[in-house]
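Hey all, sorry for the wall of text incoming. These are the four entities for the joint prediction.
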Amino acid sequence: MVDTGNSVRKVPAPELQTSAWLNTPQPLTLAALRGKVVVLHTFQIFCPGCVQVGIPQAQRIYQEFDPERVAVIGLHTVFEHHPVMGPDALEVFTHEYRLRFPIGIDKYEGAPQGIPLTMREYRMQGTPTLILIDKTGDIRLHKFGHISDLTVGFSIGALLSEDFDEAAAEAKSLQPEGISDGCDTDGCSV
Amino acid sequence: MVDTGNSVRKVPAPELQTSAWLNTPQPLTLAALRGKVVVLHTFQIFCPGCVQVGIPQAQRIYQEFDPERVAVIGLHTVFEHHPVMGPDALEVFTHEYRLRFPIGIDKYEGAPQGIPLTMREYRMQGTPTLILIDKTGDIRLHKFGHISDLTVGFSIGALLSEDFDEAAAEAKSLQPEGISDGCDTDGCSV
Amino acid sequence: MVDTGNSVRKVPAPELQTSAWLNTPQPLTLAALRGKVVVLHTFQIFCPGCVQVGIPQAQRIYQEFDPERVAVIGLHTVFEHHPVMGPDALEVFTHEYRLRFPIGIDKYEGAPQGIPLTMREYRMQGTPTLILIDKTGDIRLHKFGHISDLTVGFSIGALLSEDFDEAAAEAKSLQPEGISDGCDTDGCSV
Amino acid sequence: MVDTGNSVRKVPAPELQTSAWLNTPQPLTLAALRGKVVVLHTFQIFCPGCVQVGIPQAQRIYQEFDPERVAVIGLHTVFEHHPVMGPDALEVFTHEYRLRFPIGIDKYEGAPQGIPLTMREYRMQGTPTLILIDKTGDIRLHKFGHISDLTVGFSIGALLSEDFDEAAAEAKSLQPEGISDGCDTDGCSV
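and here's what came out:
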């Protein structure tokens, strides 16, 4: 059942760490998206659940909501088979699947291997993972695997309804970010 | 694109006029549901778009949301083929499709013929029609035909986020209801 | 796995016993369809598995194959809730779902109650049931519940490939029909 | 409508020209499959129509039919974006999508570029393309794009029903193969 109470405790969303972007003239940062609800869809191009379920859902969200209020962002979080899921392959995939929303490439400390930085920082369990970030930059939903359109739509509706105090958000953004120990599959808590 | 601004002007939802109910020990009234978001799904048992798309969506909504906060109601609004869509047929349909949410039967002035009273009062165009009513009893979404789960979920999320002032709602309910002339396909305005 | 050997032993298909027909100027008989492969789809209008899966499959078969070689026939075999699934309701259902293939109404000995005659004679377990009859009038596939398009297509392809000896078929049709004791869920054997 | 007459004139299927194979201990040849119906599914790993429609259909065929009678073969015919669709990427794709049927890699004259040899020889228009080859090694169906399960099933049923004269097939295989000028989208004719 949908958690209509949004009881998940708020945790600041760590900034994205990316090595490149597609579908955007310049790199995106969560900091610059304060005031919007951010839908972060993380995926891998050879993950069947991503290609068959997650990506089409991200496209639907991108098509149905006003980008001025809801920012849909893809994040390619490659944690396996790195040699065949590089930037060139992602670019072909994005082109062939006609994806239009901005897609960042999760960064590695050195050469591509293991779990990339953003994925690790968010403690994601795998792909696909959908993360909703509110107007103030807090993580409000963190879901590995399938999530229904009703639930995603509901959550976007609830988050968009929240007031946004620009000054307070700015003050908050001066504090150090980082995700603390209370994360589990369905969300994160401080 | 989803109207994330909920710009539809608010109109009081006329009370349901029903001749019988299924799946509930006693008749429901919108008046008694103040404080909840009401999802009113109107259908006919021989309407393919209802059976294949609308009813399954209503079931998903019923399964995903807390009934204490979101009331899913079916309304059988028979405006054609009345002899074969009577209460007995509806009961068999409801049983065979394992529908669990309350379903009212829209009422006629006399014998079943033409457009029933609630359907006429709401100026519905046909079936299926989905209507969302906010906590104070106002119509906030009125959609004939298909509507995506994302949009329905979003709208429920937005409406649930609204404050509910019981006293104000009560005061309002003392005023005469009735839908005024500003209704069109996608909503109603005063 | 598809039984590519068609090992089901052949059993003469009992003649249809019907009280009325839709979508055909005159009643159909299996006898008159010798030389064609017959796809007999039995259903009830309030059976969800029929409406959601069986009927759409019958429509696809009807649309994809040449009616001169493959005869798609619906059979309304009402074995429960008789009062609300009469001829008038079937006619509305057929109209609203835009079904174009001939549909017979399975007959009762007296008033509509219990299992109708054809359904009993064929020892069907319920609805939907798909029955394939070869050019000579023998039952070759008898399936209660869901069956894949691949399997149905395959079976039609195999049966259409069989030679048809009109004289032999005629001789056979002079013998008394009737289904013997070897029937089970998946087929019938003498 | 399904061409129930299989009127496509028969053309010998050119032998597969491959550089490597997955899911089989040793390379397959059409010559060694005489006596079976061969379902050749050609695809590219970044082709949405292949991944979403063609590959799942090939898997269904592989699961439903007896491999002793129906040989399902994948063929990776990369004609664009060669650098990111090499053997390593195909292997990861095959692993992640849990494909079990043998998959060959279409060969190039030199380095991977342009249209590979088998694809060119068969005059395929693109991916996905489904080709059915009969027991004697003749192409009997050649379809670019989507094809329904009913039609594929039907065609397999028809081809499996054909007699197979081993001696005649052997004699035929001594003649030079090669596809002549009468090929178009839907088939080939001599």
